[in-house]
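Each lists chain and fold; for instance:
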Amino acid sequence: MKKLKKYLPFLLRFSCYCLLTLFSMQVMAQDVAKDSTQPVNKVAKKKAVKNTFVSNWILDNQTVMVPVKGTFEMDIQHRFGIVNHGYKDLYGIYAPSNIRIGLSYVFRNDMQVGVGFTKDRLQWDLNGKYAIIKQTKGKWPVSVTWFGNIVFDTRAKENFVHDGDRLSYFNQLNIARKITEKLSVQIAPSYSHYNNIDGYLDADGKIQRKMKNGHFAMAFMGRYKLTAKTTFMANYDQPLTQHPMNNPHPNISFGFEMATSGHAFQVFAGNYHNIIPQSNNFFNENDYTKGQFLIGFNITRLWNF
């Protein structure tokens, strides 16, 4: 205690000196900042990595990309029939096809909403997309985007007991990294849900479900730029949930994309015929090990307002 009293005046004077020094340094820094065209101690803002993918779509899945604010987008997606029937339907070109037309708008930064109509089951979808994290050098190693939808089946009412049976839902988390200027990869876990699933009567006359109402899946995809406007793309979708019956087949697809600043065209071969993601994950009957592939294409057009 005596030693503390002995050095107390010195400590007080030293503390006051430090405070005065810091204060004077702050005043000098402010004066320099006023006189200089460059602010003092300004930290450079880290910029997010651009063009991980060119389009919102990579074959059968969404990418992490969200267009800039004020972008209006139109999508035309087409899937022909499987090639197995050969020449009699020109390898699926003249077989029954599936088509979706979609419209979306980016009304604020990193957030996109849209609506679409699909030929299969006369389905209307309301969808949304939000960029949670953007790959940034020295900060975030990956980009993360959420995508989800609500789908309403508008077929005749005799197909349903309740109106709620028409509804299905889809949620997907897209995680991507741009590895080089040419190579980008993405993984995407997803969860699909149908309010109504087909059942059957067992030997005891009880209704049994053929499938569960919920379904988990994982998608793996990537692209490699061949030229400034041409890209090779590949995609694999693996179902994870095991159902009592009618387990869906995985999907493999590969193709090319030709793109400009406002337009992207993708043509590819794969074994997903349904375009709505939960329909693909739940009900894919095409087995690629038996060569049940089909030709598909996506056309995307962007306008900025």
About this structure: The chain has a mean pLDDT of 87. The chain is about 15% helix and 45% strand.
